[in-house]
Each structure stands twice: as C-alpha cells, then as structure tokens.
C-alpha cells in the first residue's frame, strides 16, 4: 500500500473515531434526557407557598356512591350476600369472590434489583441505598415522585419514610395517578411542623392545596412515619348500593381528607411516593413498601 493510500485510510479511521467520541462523550446527559421522560418517575416544580388553597369540609372515610350499582343489593333465600357483576346488572356472583387480578408487592429494598428505578435527573436522584430507597432532591424547587405501573380497584397501600440529614422538606404518597402524570393526589407530611397537607395536581392548574392540619402522631425531625391508604367497595344496607370507601392514616392514626374533583370510577390508577424540598440536597429514605389487593369485607373477611 502506498504512503498516500495509508494516509487516506488513517484519516478515514480518525474521522469515524471522532464521530463515535462526539456521540458518546457525555453518556450521563443522554441517559438523563431519556430518564426525565420515564413514566416511573416524575420531576415537577413545587413550592408550598405558591399553591392554590381551597377550603373543603373534612370527612374521615370517603363514601362515594357508584350509580351503576345503586339498585343491586339483595340477599338470597339462604341470606348469603351477593354482588352485581360490573357491566351486567342481571347476573350475580355468590361470595366469596376469588380475584384473578391478584397483586401482592412487598419491598423492604434490601434487594437493589427488586424493580424500582435507578435514575439520576437534573433535579432528583432515585436509587437504592443501604437497604432503603432514596429520593434526593438536588435543588430546592423540584418535587420527585416514584410510581410503578401496578393498578388495582380495591387495594391496601402503605410505605414508611424518614428524612435523612438536616435539609428541610416534605414527603408522602401519591395516588389516583393517571398514566401520563397529568392528574394525581398527594398526601404530604411535614416532619418539622407535624402537619399533613393534601393536594390535587392537574396539568391545567398545577397544585391545589385542599387542606392541611396538625397531627400529633407525626414523628418529628428524622423520625420514621408510615402512611397507609385503603380503597375498597362496600355495601350499605341503610342506603342500598355499592360505595367506594377510602381510608387514610398516619402511624395508624386515622386522618381526615376531603376530595374534589373525584376521578372517574371506571378507571384504575397508580400509586407511589415522593419527596419535596424546602432546602437543596433534601433526602428521604423509604422502606417497607406494600401494595396488595384489599380483602373483600363480606361475608367473613375482617379488616
């Protein structure tokens, strides 16, 4: 091969190498750009002082009628309870009901490959750390949320959480979350003031603060706090019909929430957890995540 041809080959090789290096010189920024659109996580601007406030009456257990079933509560001759099948009010299923959509997810985050995301965005870090799951708010203005894809009509959901370090902020659960993060609810704990806050988020209006209250059962500072949510269908004998019941508690103490607007009863929604900063480098660790089918309360299943 002549020297001139060798020079041409070398130049072509260097040109290809330069293209490759230019494409891969900053792989982390490429990963971040992709991950910030990942539907398992959500980074959104949040400032408690700038949220819209709406006063609402408090209700401890939400009792929402489903118009599809209001006329379908009966007892058969043997006094067994029966339930109308969704979409067909002429047929009945004798209890107990076996739910084919069985879900039981418990995660103490001891296994870093258990399925929650490792993601580092420009505003939040989501990762396993020392047998817990961490959300680190890098800035003082962006809330970070994690939610997997599981959905149930009746469920129990709970997670424990604690602040790590001295940076101030909030944490809690997200629920009634739709598929594209355009609408959801937040139940949020303030460990510095022993208060809880309740928000609705919609793309068109942002965060709306529905209510807040002081709760003496909240462990302050870096103490551990657990939030539990239950959603299930119940029969009301006094006012025959099926109703959706919602119960919430913090550290096993029932709390009062009120809802507006109520999302469609025909859809299923995701649940998750979040950390929201007051100070930069606010970090929250989560543990003992549980999401499972709620046990049907009748005829023999107890809470």
Description:
By secondary structure, this protein is mainly beta. Strands 3, 7, 8, 9, 10, 12, 17, 18, 19 and 21 form a ten-stranded antiparallel beta sheet that branches. The longest helix has 22 residues, at 3-24. A hairpin with a 2-residue loop joins β18 (242-250) and β19 (253-254). Helix content is 10%, strand content 45%. The protein has two domains: 3-35; 42-293, Jelly Rolls (Sandwich), CATH 2.60.120.560. It starts with a helix and ends in a 10-residue tail after the last strand.
Uncertain parts: 13-37, 54-99, 296-303
Count of discrete domains: 2
> Can you name the CATH architecture of the largest domain?
Sandwich
CATH fold-level name of the largest domain:
Jelly Rolls
**Content of β-strand:** 35-45%
Helix content: 10-25%
Shape: globular
SS-derived structural category? mainly beta
What is the count of helical runs?
A: 2
Described by strand count, sense and barrel closure, the largest sheet is: 10 strands, antiparallel
CATH class of the largest domain: Mainly Beta
Radius of gyration: 25 Å
CATH level-four homologous superfamily name of the largest domain:
Exo-inulinase, domain 1
Give the termini distance in whole angstroms.
84 Å
Query: How many strand elements?
Result: 21
